[in-house]
Amino acid sequence: MSLRKVPLIATLVLFGLWAIAFTATHWPMEPDNDPLFPHVDKFVHAGIYAILAITALFAATAWNYRWSLLLAVTVALALVGVGMFDELTQLFVAGRTADPLDLVADTFGAVVGISLYGLVRGGRGSEELSASESP
């Protein structure tokens, strides 16, 4: 595979993951749905948004955007906007509600994903000290 295709593929993966998440959160639910444990949906929301954040940052850096605090904040704000859209549009789906705590979980997941990406990325791309510059 050509390296020139990586940004496009990363972007398609990002939108594909978002489409899967959007479909899953907009599937009509029965009111008697008994979760595995209380608030399991909050963990799912956080996990989905962590994965979306990591994928968004990977796609952005594949398009040659430099990893920076500005990029991290931009991705975080974009994902909060997506989370708000997701919650508001659930008002129109049978058995779904707009839950502000889901938005909190989405935001938390995005921050965790961005932090993990930053930690992994922080070890790469930094210049190494030459032998004469080492302490």
Automatic annotation (TrEMBL):
This is VanZ like family protein. Pfam families: VanZ (PF04892). InterPro entries: VanZ-like. The chain crosses the membrane at residues 43-60, 67-85. Keywords: Membrane, Transmembrane, Transmembrane helix. Residues 38-120 form the VanZ-like domain. The keyword Transmembrane helix applies. It comes from Bremerella volcania. The lineage of its organism: Bacteria, Pseudomonadati, Planctomycetota, Planctomycetia, Pirellulales. It comes from the Bacteria. NCBIfam families: vanZ_1.
